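for the record, two folds in this file. i put them one after another cuz i was lazy. first one right below, seq on top, structure tokens after. the second one comes after a little note so u can tell where it starts
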Amino acid sequence: MFEIIAETAAEVVVEVLFRIPVILYRWITGKDGERINDYKTDRKRFIQFEGMKKRILVEERDIALVKSKISETLGELAESLVIDDFQFQTTDQGTIIHAPRSISFFTFHFLIQALGRRDIVAIGLVESTRFAYSAYNDPNSVNVIGQTYMGNRFFISLVEDYSKKQFLRVNNRIKTNPAYKVRALKNELRQI
């Protein structure tokens, strides 16, 4: 509990300290942040993706169909992962896909986007002891969008290089689906 309060306080302090220079920069230059794929970036939230727990929640109970879509997507990438690296758990609502720890930031989010574009509702849930976020394919752009545990909305552009640093592009003006909030998804998983 103390860690959550400390993390919240730290995020508020960082948000306030970061906001002031951004506002001054915009006021002086007249520029309104970096624009990527139709979204502006207010700030980058760097994460340590490698050590985080990664799951994809899909609203499809047919595991054979889900596996075939994931296999097709992995075949499009230069990734050494195979379908046997993933674990699948069927629930009343769909399937939980447990991604391997070795999956890259790009591949994980590309899978979410690819499943979404293949008419399978897929929501990624990424967690560590101090941070969590949910992400899904944005129907209005070529990005993956989502929300952090603290409610910050963000987008991920898959045209960037994430091999050295992984980050979320925070933009709280993005409209996200309230059903895909981290707390709601975690509560749903607890009931399973």
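(here's the note) second protein begins now
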Amino acid sequence: MAAPSVSVPPPAPAPSAPPAQSVQISDGALTLDEFEAVLVSSPHPSSHPILRDVAQRLRAGQPFEVMVTMLNGAILHPAEGWVASNTPASVFGMVLKSRVLSTQLQIIPQRPHVDLRQRAERRGMTIHPVEAMLYVLATAAECRVPEQ
């Protein structure tokens, strides 16, 4: 006697996660003075030294890179007023809010003779005004920023 065949329906697809609500680099802008005024309002103590370091380096006017990974990060050129990034704002938020991840972030001074725009293009980075990145960093660290 043959065993009865049972038809098993295929598993239902897993529901897709809702899209992450994150700030995009073009969503707002903060001047350096505004950024410095709000950076201490972040409820994440691990973000304070990083944000202060970024502000100090911008004040110094020398280009630098914020490396999240070997391939991802941002190049800031304060003298020319631009930043290039290939990293979503949500990733900056994860790093700035995490005591462990924030220790892995590297801020590296860049030599003035290096063509940083060309380097940014090779890495697939998009160019934005520095003020837009300051807004991203402040909101990613959940600082209390002025209404845009």
